[in-house]
Write a structure and sequence with these properties.
InterPro entries: CFAP54. This is Cilia-and flagella-associated protein 54. It is a single chain. The protein has 567 residues and is mainly alpha-helical. The chain is built from 23 helices and no strands. It has helices spanning 31-50, 57-78, 84-100, 104-119, 131-138, 148-169, 176-196, 203-221, 226-242, 252-268, 272-295, 302-323, 355-363, 367-378, 396-414, 421-433, 437-447, 449-460, 467-486, 502-509, 512-526, 529-532, 534-550. Helix 6 runs antiparallel to helix 7 and helix 6 (148-169) packs parallel to helix 8 (203-221). The longest helix is centred in the middle third of the chain and has 24 residues, at 272-295.
C-alpha cells in the first residue's frame, strides 16, 4: 500500500504588531508613538537635506525619493496601530510642516487628502458641489465638534497646496487647465467661507480665506482675468464686513486692500465709474468705523491713526484715478477752450503749478501719498513697458493730464521724500511707456542712478551678483537704449560699461542692431526668462527687431559713451 505524502510543515504566522493602546496611554513615552515620531523625524530630515545649498541634482532626487517612500510606508505601517484621533492630528501636523518646507505635493497627497478621505469619500473638486453637500459630508455633527476646526483648516490648506502645485508647473498660468484649476480652488474657498460665516468663533477661517482668495485673484488679474475674479474679491470684501470680529480696527488695513483690489478690477474692465463708486463706498465704511472709535472712551492711538490714514489714502487714490481725467475731458459736440500749462516754464515754480497738482494737494496731504496716487492714476494693466505709445483713448486732454502727472512725479523724485527704490524704478518704466521723454530724462538725472543702484543693492544684499540687482540694472540699460531707438531727440544718457569687459565694450561699439540683440540676451539670461515664459521672449524679440528694422539709419555712434554707472 502506497504511503500518503507527508504534509509540508508551515511556519507559524506572526501576530500583527501590537497597537499603541496595548502599551498604555498614548503619549510620547508610548513605544509605538515614540517609534512613529522617530520615523517621521528621519523622513523630514531627508527632505530638509534636499533643500541644503550646494546639493547636486542627483542627490536631491535621491533624498526626495527616500523621503517620499519613507512617508508612504510610515502611514501604512502605523495606520492600524495608532488611535484615529492621534493619527489624524499627526497627518495635519506633518502636512503643515511639509507646507513650510514648500513640499506642497507631498502635503497634498500624503497628508491632507489622506485626512479628508477618512471623513468622506466625496470628490471635493467635482462640478456642482454646493455648501449643503460640503457641510453634510465633512461636518455631520456641526461646527461645535472638536475635530471641525481641524477639518476646516485642512480644507483650506489642501486647496492652497493645490494652487502652489499649479504655480510650480505653470507659474504664469499659460495653460487653460491651470486657470480652470485656480477658479475651482476659488469656488471651494468661497463655499468654506459661506458655511463658516454665521459662526463668529470661526472668524479666523474667514480671514484666512480672504487672504488666500486675494492671493489667487491677484495672480489671475495679471493674465487678464479681472472680470472673472471680481465676484470673488467682492465676496471677500463683504465677508470681512459681515463678520463682527473682523470689523475691528486691527483688520482695517487688510479690508482696505480688498477694497482697492475690487476697484482695480473695475478699472481693468474699463468700468471706471463703478471703481470710483466702490471706492467712495469704502471711504464711507472707513469713516463709520472711525466714528465708532471716537465714541469710545479711550483716545485713538498713534498706530490706530496710522491705519485709518493708510486706508483712506488707498481709497482716495482709487477715486483720484478717475476724477483726475473725467472733469477735463471735452464732451463730444461741445467747444471748450483747452487749458494746458507750460511745464517747462513752470518747472521751478512752487506747487501747485498745474490743475493736476492742485487736485492732488486738495486730496492728499503728503508727498508719499501724492506719489502713490500718481502711480495708480498712470497704471494700466493693458500697457506693455517696451511698447510705448499715447494713452487710450488718445485724447488731447488726457495726454495733457498724463504729462502733468509725470511732471509732478518726477518733481517729487527730485526732492528728499524717501521714495522707495522699487517705486522709483516702476515710475520710470511708466513714464517711458507713455513716451513722456522730458519727465523720463529728468527722472533719470535726479535719481543719479549710480547711487540709486548702490542703494537698491544695499537694501537687498551686499552682494553685487544678486539677481534682483542685476535685473534692475539690465532693465535700466534696456530702457535707455530703447529711448534712442524710439525718439529722434539727441541722446542725453549713456550706459555703463566696464573698462575690462571686452565682450560688452565690443558690443557697445558695434552697430545698433547687434548691441540691442546683446542687451536682450543679457536681460533674458539674467532673469532666466527662457525657463518661465518663452512666449514673452518671442514677443520682446519680435518687437525689438521690428523697431530696429524701421530705423535703418541707426548707428552705434548715435549713443555717446558714459561712464557714470560703473559696477
Amino acid at each position: 500500500m502506497a504511503e500518503l505524502p507527508k504534509s509540508r510543515s508551515r511556519s507559524p504566522t506572526l501576530p500583527p504588531p501590537a497597537p499603541a493602546i496595548f502599551y498604555g496611554s498614548v503619549d510620547p513615552r508610548n513605544p509605538v508613538v515614540h517609534r512613529c515620531e522617530s520615523d517621521l523625524s528621519d523622513c523630514l530630515g531627508f527632505l530638509k537635506r534636499k533643500r541644503e545649498p550646494g546639493a547636486s541634482s542627483s542627490k536631491d532626487q535621491e533624498l526626495h525619493r527616500r523621503g517620499t517612500t519613507s512617508l508612504f510606508n510610515i502611514w501604512n505601517n502605523y495606520r492600524s496601530r495608532l488611535p484615529d484621533w492621534y493619527y489624524n492630528e499627526t497627518l495635519v501636523k506633518i502636512g503643515d510642516q511639509l507646507m513650510e518646507m514648500k513640499e506642497h505635493k507631498l502635503a497634498f497627497l500624503y497628508c491632507y487628502e489622506q485626512y479628508l478621505q477618512q471623513i468622506s469619500g466625496i470628490n471635493i473638486n467635482k462640478y456642482g458641489l454646493d455648501a449643503h453637500q460640503l457641510k453634510s459630508n465633512f461636518f455631520p455633527n456641526g461646527f461645535r465638534d472638536q475635530s471641525a476646526t481641524r477639518t476646516l483648516h485642512v480644507l483650506q490648506a489642501r486647496n492652497i497646496c493645490l494652487y502652489k502645485i499649479v504655480c510650480d508647473k505653470d507659474s504664469d498660468l499659460l495653460n487653460q487647465d491651470s486657470v480652470k484649476t485656480c477658479f475651482g480652488i476659488l469656488t471651494i474657498l468661497q463655499l468654506i467661507m459661506q458655511i463658516t460665516l454665521p459662526h463668529e468663533h470661526l472668524c479666523w477661517i474667514i480671514y484666512n480665506g480672504t487672504v488666500h482668495m486675494y492671493t489667487i485673484c491677484r495672480h489671475l488679474m495679471t493674465i487678464g482675468q479681472s472680470a472673472k475674479v471680481l465676484e470673488y474679491l467682492l465676496w471677500a470684501s463683504l465677508c470681512m464686513e459681515s463678520s463682527i470680529p473682523l470689523l475691528a480696527v486691527h483688520y482695517l488695513t487688510w479690508r482696505a486692500t480688498l477694497y482697492a483690489a475690487v476697484c482695480q478690477c473695475y478699472y481693468d474692465c474699463q468700468s471706471g465709474i463703478h471703481g470710483e463708486v466702490f471706492a467712495r463706498r469704502g471711504l464711507i465704511k472707513i469713516d463709520e468705523l472711525k466714528q465708532m472709535e471716537f465714541m469710545s472712551s479711550s483716545p485713538l492711538s498713534t498706530e490706530t491713526k496710522k491705519k485709518f490714514k493708510e486706508a483712506t489714502v488707498k481709497m482716495a487714490a482709487m477715486i483720484f484715478k478717475r476724477t483726475v481725467f473725467e472733469p477735463r475731458r471735452r464732451p463730444k459736440g461741445v467747444l471748450r477752450p483747452r487749458i494746458k500749462a507750460n511745464l517747462k516754464e513752470a518747472q521751478h515754480l512752487p506747487w501747485p503749478r498745474t490743475i493736476t497738482e492742485r487736485l492732488l494737494m486738495e486730496i492728499f496731504d503728503c508727498n508719499s501719498s501724492i506719489f502713490f496716487a500718481i502711480m495708480e492714476a498712470l497704471f494700466d494693466k493693458n500697457r506693455r513697458t517696451l511698447i510705448p505709445g499715447p494713452s487710450v483713448p488718445d485724447e488731447i486732454e488726457v495726454r495733457d493730464i498724463i504729462a502733468e502727472l509725470c511732471f509732478a512725479g518726477a518733481d517729487i523724485l527730485d526732492g528728499k521724500n524717501g521714495i522707495s527704490a522699487d517705486a522709483a524704478l516702476r515710475f520710470i518704466k511708466i513714464v517711458f511707456n507713455y513716451e513722456e521723454w522730458d519727465s523720463f530724462d529728468h527722472a533719470i538725472v535726479v535719481m543719479n542712478f549710480i547711487s540709486f543702484i548702490q542703494f537698491y543693492n544695499t537694501i537687498i544684499d551686499h552682494n553685487q551678483s544678486n539677481p534682483v540687482w542685476k535685473k534692475a540694472k539690465a532693465e535700466i540699460k534696456l530702457l535707455l537704449v530703447m529711448q534712442n531707438l524710439l525718439t529722434i531727440r539727441k541722446a542725453r544718457h549713456g550706459l555703463c560699461v566696464q573698462g575690462d569687459n571686452i565682450r560688452e565694450t565690443a558690443a557697445f561699439r558695434s552697430p545698433g542692431k547687434k548691441y540691442i540683440g546683446f542687451l536682450v540676451n543679457e536681460v533674458i539670461r539674467t532673469i532666466n526668462l527662457g525657463i518661465t515664459n518663452p512666449v514673452l521672449i518671442a514677443e520682446v524679440s519680435l518687437r525689438l527687431t521690428s523697431v530696429m528694422e524701421n530705423i535703418a539709419d541707426f548707428k552705434s555712434g548715435d549713443i555717446p559713451e558714459f561712464q557714470m554707472l560703473n559696477q
